[in-house]
């Protein structure tokens, strides 16, 4: 049944119950004790709602609702179905609009959240409880996990580095990406949602690329002036609006990239990250008041599939390891392995925006790969390797697609998806990568594309199948199957 049909059924059921009383006990809404009254006054402003997986102790899914409606400070109610009953709950306010000391509305939103119990379905924002003139997604339905609590998602889409790159303040500069004709994120999101139909979407980081918003050839109010890259308007422009088809299709796992750092001396886009997308959202602009600029590893559960967020946003990109950072990362890799040990028979995917082992360039004699600092941290960890059930490393940062695995190795394959929208890097020649040494091990398979697209991981009979899809949704060969044995790697055909 389509999502629109589900919405129609939910609305029809609610109307019928209001007019005639419930025909069955299971159709009667169970309301929160303090649902807010319908807002008074004319509809105004715009709201965005999405669902994301978080690391809650009693839940794994959260609905988020960010609205510019006035009066500010109001949160709507959401409706969902659980155990045969329609339930409603008032969303919790996390933050009010934030105005900078200079009087600028960096974040003109009220942010509300709702913890959704595992096993719930058919979530809706109740339209009578918000004053927003426009609510996204347009059908007001929010996707919840559709895999069993004791199961795992069957189709996982991976995207990353998806914003439109604008580095010059001059409109039309050759240094800027053509955001009108050469930026495919909305096209990609539309086709991925309609054709690939993922149960879950993983974004490996880097959401806003408009360093100089005024130079974009599609600039619009709220994201058209110097310094607005870290504002709400540019997050909408560079991510929420073009990605809306995917946000309406599946829950997300969000990872932090280097574009989401808290950079001293200017307003970093880490402020957007911590306010809206982090697993624990913060109020105001708290990018600089948090106890550390990087966050220790966090586990996100999707049933029996587990993701570990590894914050590599500030990892050094140099060709030689940063010894101080590597010492910190060694401790974090110990934490990763400790988390994986909690469920030794379950699959874990490590998400680090900056990759452990991605080849940037290749010649007939050598390769240049990244990231030596992260790899050095892993080598200095207690196990000197990732736990056996860490099956994949998911990354972005380099603006290409690449799957790299290793010959006769227990090292998990490295999947890099940094090609979902921004200006592309040139991919290496795979024939010059295979057989070369990367961090002490021989490369078996190297599949690289400098084409905009996304990855799909499909669980078929208990094995993960990997395919690359371009922005039209078309799958490119080969189809690669991840081994379930002690020797890690893909078999591709």
Automatic annotation (TrEMBL):
Residue numbers spanned by region Disordered: 24-44
Regions crossing the membrane: none
Stretches assigned to coiled coil: none
KW Transcription regulation (keyword) present: no
Record's signal peptide: 1-16
Protein's UniProt keywords contain Signal: yes
Pfam families named among the record's database cross-references: Metallophos
Biased composition (Low complexity): 25-34
Gene3D superfamilies with a match to the protein in the record: 3.60.21.10
UniProt keywords, alphabetically: Signal
Calcineurin-like phosphoesterase domain sequence ranges: 155-400
Protein name: Metallophosphoesterase
Organism encoding this protein: Actinomadura nitritigenes
